[in-house]
Write a structure and sequence with these properties.
This protein is mostly helical. The protein is built from seven helices and three strands. Strands 1-2-3 form a three-stranded antiparallel β-sheet, with helices on one face. The protein is elongated. It starts with a helix and ends in a 12-residue tail after the last helix.
Length: 203
């Protein structure tokens, strides 16, 4: 029951996102410019971006790309031919964390143990973070090995599909292997049925 509700929620979110994707992309660009003007982006830019940049450098390095992390992103290539990749606050994946939190409200409604719920939240948070690292790394790889247009299209559209696919997999995995139901009275009676009652009839 709760499993169906969660997947229905993800499906509804997917439908809304796909219908309004062009508007969402435009809105994100406007929101980015506003936040950068009021300097609110500095908190994310100074603390989260450098961490993600280092992880992305390691990831793209597996494919033979030489890169150096910077406070604003990473530098790719040699000194003679250096390309700078800027990672703005809007690119780190805050949208995917919002979607993840929304699905938590339905996915964790069932009678599950606190321990398994905590495990689910931690796995989901870590997985969403790694998906964002993978997404940004793929954008860098596409820009390096294909072209800038392909990387931009992937960044604006297909990266959202990656997030949705991750949420579907995450909740399937959680419901199948992580979440454990609490033992209720009905379950205890099924596991330990009461002994038959001996009735004595007076003659």
């Amino acid at each position: 029951m709760y499993e169906k509700k969660t997947f229905k929620t993800i499906f509804i979110i997917t439908t809304v996102i796909l219908i309004t994707l062009p508007a969402i992309t435009t809105f994100n660009e406007i929101l980015t410019s506003i936040v950068m003007k009021i300097q609110l982006y500095r908190v994310i830019q100074e603390f989260i971006v450098p961490i993600e940049a280092k992880m992305i450098v390691v990831t793209v390095g597996l494919f033979g790309i030489k890169a150096i992390p910077t406070p604003l992103g990473l530098n790719i290539g040699t000194i003679q031919q250096l390309n700078h990749v800027t990672i703005s606050w809007n690119c780190i994946g805050w949208q995917s964390f919002i979607l993840f939190v929304i699905t938590l409200f339905t996915g964790l409604q069932g009678p599950y143990t606190r321990y398994s719920k905590t495990q689910t939240i931690l796995i989901g948070f870590l997985g969403t973070f790694l998906i964002n690292i993978t997404r940004i790394s793929l954008v860098v790889l596409l820009a390096q090995f294909v072209n800038q247009v392909t990387a931009t299209v992937f960044h604006d559209y297909f990266s959202t599909v990656m997030t949705i696919a991750w949420l579907f997999f995450f909740w399937w995995f959680s419901f199948t292997y992580v979440l454990e139901r609490k033992l209720e009275l009905y379950d205890l009676l099924e596991e330990n049925p009461a002994p038959p009652t001996l009735r004595i009839h007076k003659s």
